[in-house]
Amino acid sequence: MSRTDIDTLSAENMPWRCEPCGTTRRQSMRLESQATDGTLTIQDIMKVLNDIRTDQANFVKDLNTSYESLQEQLTANTEAINKQVEKVNGCMEKFEAVIEENLILKKKVEALEVRLEEAEQYSRRNTIEIHGLPFPQNKTETQEEVIELVKKVGEGLGTNIDESMIDACHRLSRRPMGDRPPPVVVKFVRRIDKDRVMEKRRQKREFSTRHMGLAMDTPVYLNEAMSPARRRLFALAREAKKTNNYQFLWSRNGKIFMRKKTGDSVVLVTCQDDLNKLK
User: Fold this and answer.
1) Phi and psi at residue 166, in whole multiples of 5°?
2) Separation of alpha carbons 181 and 136, rounded Å
3) Least confident residue range of 20-24, 62-66, 230-234
4) pTM to 2 decimals?
5) Most confidently modeled of 14-23, 32-41, 125-134?
6) For residues 220 and 209, is the Cβ–Cβ distance under 8 A?
7) Looking only at Cα atoms, what is the longest distance across the chain?
8) CA gap 107, 105 in Å, rounded
């Protein structure tokens, strides 16, 4: 402004405003005019529209910003999930491989257990157990006395059992709560001698201490020696015999056989699954 303009404004006592302040003042005056007479001008409508447009633009801008942020987070989460899925898939592949390897090892262990059990049973191929032989109550039984009882068993069965045929002979320990005499285990030098004694026992329907020349009359049973696993299987077979109404159950050379009735086919029992299949 020139000096003359300043002097004129001062002399007339007129206010002066810069352009920004003048614009604000004009807008204020329009609002005051609306408040007084209730009329709207084109400028007022344009201002409202501009304000709405500005607000909408700001809203769209904020929305786009939020959307981009969410998109970035979603992308990051997707990548993280994909990595986790890859890890899970890798773990599942390893898990399936371990399961397959475990099944293979399980089959190998089962095969080894069968072989071990068969070897253990084979080591007893020349051995029998004699149940029902009298046992002295008041003194310790010597091995010579046990061998003499075994010889008497042979005499009662009508076959000779010589001491030279016996590789080992001893009586098992008495059970703590048992009242029966413990069985006598006899291992023959030759399998043929063991088979001959067992065949003589099968031919004799009833056999007791009376046939051995002893005063008492107690049943005497001769059984082939079995491994612990085969003995447990034979006990299960006895239960299955009662449950399924089978008439015959016997063992020969360490193998277990069953037959439901005379004329039926013979069932070879090698494991518990064979018993579960009985009808």
Assistant:
1) -95, 125
2) 9
3) 20-24
4) 0.59
5) 125-134
6) yes
7) 164
8) 5
Nearest-angstrom CA–CA distance, 164 and 167:
8
Read off the amino acid at residue 239.
E
**C-alpha to C-alpha distance for 129 and 46, rounded to whole angstroms:** 117
């006895």: which residue's tokens? 238
Average pLDDT over residues 191-218: 90
For 99-126, letters b (16+ CB in 10 Å) and e give eeeeeeeeeeeeeeeeeebeeebeebeb
- Find tokens 């898939």 and name the residue: 89
Q: How many CB atoms lie within 10 A of CB 161?
A: 21
List b or e across 254-279, with b for residues whose CB sees 16 or more CB atoms inside 10 angstroms.
bebebbbeeeeeebebeeeebbeebe
Residues 110, 192: Cα–Cα separation, whole Å: 32
pLDDT tens-digit map of 135-187: 887 778 888 999 999 999 999 999 999 999 999 999 988 776 667 889 999 99
Q: Which residues contact 262 (CB under 8 A, 6 or more apart)?
A: 247
- In this prediction, residue 40 carries a pLDDT of 64
Lowest-pLDDT range, 15-19, 81-85, 96-100, 148-152? 15-19
Please report, for residues 43, 56, 59, 60, 110, the alpha-carbon distance to residue 53 in angstroms, rounded to integers and kept in the order given: 15, 5, 10, 10, 82
pLDDT, residue 162, reads 92
